[in-house]
């Protein structure tokens, strides 16, 4: 399918894959997967023949769809990454654009495949794995200098939002700045208002992904579950060049999570949802049109009809290597939709792309290089023909040299030079300056090494990660805190947090163990080195003749050193892997916590009328009596106002206030500052808690069984606390009443 037409061009059709979502239903008679065919793979559905009048007879019909490969229910995330994403990542590293997009109905596993599951490290999807892979390559490749940038955008109702924007409070999607599209004279699109953030390493990139995902999650307002109806595009921009060369390679990798592909007739019609359904339909409809036009090689391709097709223009029939994953569900009720996904994929497979090696001469770099060459030629010439000067350097000249040396040291360009001309005095002065700087650095290094040595003495290899438990944030008022305890206990995400907490604890133990091993190996290497030195001294004292012979004892020691070194390296490798996992799990936990906090905020504002609302008890009755506060249904009057402003300023402290809210996440990038170490010895009382919500005190467990009438907390006299206590009591009563009375 792929062919190198000319150097630097790859012609290839869009590669299509299918992934079947695991199901508990018995589906062996409904579909089958065949990956052994020479021509590729296929998935086949066996469904009752529909006579078109709603009447179904018992004849069966087979539908077969071809794919490059079909991943059945048991396929794991690693396999998906290796087969689908790794080849694309390789091309991106080589300077070609790449796109992977997931297409399928809501709930068929698009987000699971592209981003990953929110539960465990093993569930991480294509984005984090690809980032890992790219940065690993970037670190190892010493022949190239790379810079990487990242953007993350969400297209919802044909409006484009920047998920990485850090200036605005991202309470709702509508609060994010919108990104607009401009077409330049060559029909290339430019995205205005989209922040493209530099990310120097995997950790920073993962933090950006986390920031965007959290924005995506918290931006879902009460009115809509936006994520199923919006498209998300995570893009990595890679720029690489060889040191000394002015030729740069710029490539882009789009990882796209499309909106659910189900049709408008499947959705509940009414109000907001209809608008959304219409938009999603319109936008996927335009995608379909573009794809049909391309597959039929029509003259006009209607890219400009929608934002999404404009943004993905290159990926569809352009300068890009594109791969599509069709996510399908084989539950009986979803078969029709799954077949329409497969049908769509067959069209997509006809599209030919032509990926071009994105290499260009960077004029700025070229000019810089020519200037350098020019200067060095002049210097050479002067060196040969010029007269050395005799007088001392002036104060001004010395200062200028200092600045020059500083600039030289700070210049990241490996080819930067110190242009000093032929003046020997200047050259000498610079050497002296450099010497002073180096000896200063040496001193600092010694101090750091000593400190490290001390730290290692305690076996604490993972200090930067494990010592990050921060001081508790501002405490909640008592009433609200207790409400939070109860709310949290029943929340669906508590299990995720607890599971991951257990995983983290385990990993910390492993890391600690590895740290001990590392120290042991280091010690024994040092010990062997001492022995070796002793041995050499001894032998030097002995007969001269022997010196030339191979010393068998020395050889043995050297062999041991080699073995220990190998072990040492492998421990360090394991530690690095653990570190990545720990970081990922910590991010998962942070996300679950942010979600919990958000859900609580919504629930609290629903259950407790604020002062401006106290005269409207009807509001209370509209809320659903659910502790697992799901965002309420669309179109309900008044529900759009659930936001922070619902509370007077002094009540705006949130549970988990030590965990950054979505707004605070800007401080997350590039360093995670508020990770929490799991600890066995949490204080028992909820009021002393350092912010952990994972432990429930026995008193609080009992609290939920107390009847409203028995429930009396003495007031404190502090009006702020008392307000919250009363609000909580009201909310509880409300809730219990509604639990007792069946829903109308
Ligand atoms: P979509 O993004 O297409 O709406 P999701 O990716 O959110 O669907 O998947 C829906 C649910 O199914 C999620 O809870 C997800 O964790 C789960 N899921 C999807 N695919 C898989 C899979 N391959 N293995 C395990 N769970 C999956
Ligand atoms: Mg999704």
UniProtKB/TrEMBL annotation:
GO terms for biological process: microtubule-based movement. Its main location: cytoplasm. It is found in: Cytoplasm, Cytoskeleton. SMART domains: KISc. It comes from the Eukaryota. Residues 619-628 have a biased composition (Polar residues). Residues 605-647, 673-699 are annotated as: Disordered. Residues 13-351 form the Kinesin motor domain. GO terms for molecular function: ATP binding; microtubule binding; microtubule motor activity. GO terms for cellular component: microtubule. ATP binds at residues 104-111. Gene3D superfamilies: Kinesin motor domain. SUPFAM superfamilies: P-loop containing nucleoside triphosphate hydrolases. Keywords: ATP-binding, Cytoplasm, Cytoskeleton, Microtubule, Motor protein, Nucleotide-binding. Belongs to the TRAFAC class myosin-kinesin ATPase superfamily. Kinesin family. This is Kinesin-like protein. It comes from Gadus morhua (Atlantic cod).
